[in-house]
Design goal:
453 residues, alpha/beta, 7-stranded mixed sheet, 14 helices, 22 strands, 31% helix, hydrolase, RibonucZ/Hydroxyglut_hydro
């Protein structure tokens, strides 16, 4: 077997791994690059292998940095099956068409306002392209072997992280390659702990927080304090949030804060993401993927007023009263949150609260670094609002938790590949694995190919 790294090297985005066995080629994950411009431009480069020559795709989970390139892969000739968990399929039915629709809207907006360098600006793919890609999905249950292509056999195990997230094991000719995907945390209040994996001849492990140890303080306390301080200033709390995973965790936390009396019971809370609202409804369908009861799921779904229409979204920007707005996207790379940032970032009474990792080059990372202004829709918007972050709300395991998960393996993998992390994080985890576990490990580069022998 050969393994080629088509993404998630030196970055936390663009996850794609090409696994070759004989004449068969499969992809594990098929995500979009996000963040720095040079990364985003890779989405428009010719794919490193002919899409028509790929037999199948196996997804770890639904986040767009793992699934968002699929519509373009199908558009360019891929005709094979896309294997994933049932919950991942349900989420992709929401996420992928929305991604295509958003790209069309942003291209149209750029063309109408003339701020694109391209004439005309074109979407990477359309909503219709995404709908076509969904026809090739083939959901499979957890913990059940399935045939991928030729002698390649797959199996999914619960990864925590978000609804439906999986650790992917691929077996062929007596060897097992394990892809961690994005690993959740063992004591996450919503998601189940990642499954323990006993055997891996080769391991591909994420390193998003490979150089970090999450603050043990209760993030609920910081969330409550931040909102109370903003209310006292008469301001609005804007929380950019991933529509899948983070938005649901925040809704549940906001419900708990009101229930505890830690924030005013009458404080308006808005979820300005129809996609996030749809994703939240899936938690009651897939109870085995998380820790919440039916009753808790109901409370989470009703913790906020859902903003559906564009008109309702625009109307929020006219309200100058204390409120909380949770809106996608989580790194402020697109979506409705951009319009809220344009409206509320210039006012020092307000707070922009980031709840998790911000990839380099994203607006979220720039604001946390203290930029005085950010570029939105071709214009620079001053940032006078307070900018804060609750890093330990993350749905990713930290360095200690990654080492703890790997320690369940009964023997050292022949080779361990560290991916899905910025350079410092990946290298820090490489050193820890070598020093603490004694395993041979390496940090691959973009388009590196290795023989698994």
């Amino acid at each position: 077997m050969k393994l080629k790294f088509l993404g998630a090297t030196g970055t936390v985005t663009g996850s794609k791994y090409l696994l070759t066995s004989g004449t068969h080629h499969i992809l594990v994950d098929c995500g979009l690059f996000q963040g720095h411009k040079e990364l985003r431009l890779r989405n428009r480069h010719p794919f490193p292998v002919a899409p028509a020559g790929i037999d199948a795709v196996v997804l770890t989970h639904a986040h767009l940095d793992h699934s968002g390139y699929l519509p373009l892969l199908v558009k360019n000739g891929f005709t094979g099956k896309i294997f994933c968990s049932p919950a991942t399929f349900d989420l992709c039915k929401i996420l992928l068409p929305d991604s295509g629709r958003l790209q069309e809207e942003e291209a149209n907006y750029a063309n109408r306002h003339g701020f694109s360098k391209h004439a005309p600006a074109l979407p990477l793919y359309s909503e219709a392209d995404a709908v076509r890609a969904l026809r090739q999905f083939a959901p499979v249950p957890f913990d059940t072997p399935f045939a991928i292509a030729g002698e390649l056999q797959g199996q999914l195990a619960l990864a925590g992280h978000i609804l439906g997230a999986a650790i992917v094991s691929v077996r062929c000719a007596g060897k097992t390659v394990v892809f961690s995907g994005d690993l959740g945390r063992p004591n996450d209040p919503l998601m189940v702990a990642p499954a323990a994996i006993a055997e891996a001849d080769f391991l591909v492990v994420e390193s998003t927080y490979g150089d970090k140890r999450h603050d043990p303080a209760d993030p609920l306390l910081l969330l409550g304090q931040t909102i109370r301080d903003t209310v006292a200033r008469g301001g609005v709390t804007i929380i950019p949030a991933f529509a899948v995973g983070r938005a649901q965790a925040l809704l549940y936390d906001l419900h708990r804060l009101k229930e505890q009396g830690a924030i005013p019971a009458h404080l308006p809370v808005y979820l300005n993401s129809p996609m996030a609202a749809d994703a939240t409804a899936l938690y009651q369908k897939h109870l085995h993927c998380h820790r919440l009861s039916h009753e808790q799921c109901f409370a989470m779904r009703h913790a906020a007023t859902i903003v559906n229409s564009v008109e309702e979204s625009i109307a929020l920007n006219e309200r100058q009263v204390p409120m909380v707005i949770v809106a996608a996207s989580g790194m402020a790379t697109g979506g409705r949150v951009l319009h809220h940032l344009k409206a509320f970032a210039p006012d020092p009474r307000n707070t922009i609260l980031f709840a998790g990792f911000q990839a380099g080059g994203t607006r979220g990372a720039l604001m946390l670094a203290g930029c005085a202004s950010i570029k939105i829709h071709g214009q620079y918007v001053p940032v006078r609002a307070r900018v804060a972050q609750i890093a330990n709300l993350s749905a990713h395991a930290d360095g200690d938790e990654l080492i703890g998960w790997m320690s369940h393996l009964r023997r050292a993998p022949r080779r361990t590949f560290i991916t899905h992390g910025e350079s410092a994080a990946a290298d820090a985890l490489r050193r820890r694995i070598g020093e603490e576990l004694g395993w041979p490990c390496e940090v691959p580069g973009y388009l590196d190919e290795v023989t698994l022998a």
